[in-house]
Amino acid sequence: MRRKVTGIAIGVVAACAIVVDMFMLFFKPSMDASLSSEQSSTSSSDDTNRSSSPSASFTASSDESASSDASSSSTDTATDSASQFADGSYTGELIHTNRGDVQVQITVASGSISAVTAITYPNETAQSRSISAQVIPTYEQEAVDAQSSDIKLISGATETYTGFTGSLQDAINQATQAASS
Length: 181
Prior knowledge:
50% of the residues lie in helices and 14% in strands. It has 181 residues and is of the alpha+beta class. Strands 1, 2, 3 and 4 form a 4-stranded antiparallel sheet that branches. Strand 3 (100-109) and strand 4 form a beta hairpin. The protein is elongated and about 60 Å long.
């Protein structure tokens, strides 16, 4: 009886994760579009271009997002884009995720982030390699554009996103700390 209840509970959790993933896939783009149009008077054209990125429609099987913590958000790890960074290369901490390790390195030139490179990312399975190949370049470019770890989650790549933004924020913190010392 206990196994049956456990199996049902796992099924319910997986179903909820699928529903959340589907919501993010179908409703989030339209919500983003309406927010974007409301904010168009105050936001730059670069922000608008970033929010309509074609790779934002990438989806993968929901088991990656099902294993993640739905409450994680990059807004609590974002830095102020006006902050000054010390020039140099900074490697963020290695973040362990359910899909594999992620580590990011940033290059700072003239006080701003000029390059972001994922030096370690999930590649243990064919699915992980496929997801990483599609989302890592987008995450790297968005981080350079945002000059922070406040980048958009791509549906189906939650674990990679969590590791990427965590390591990125650590590297940004190092660059900020070096600039203030």
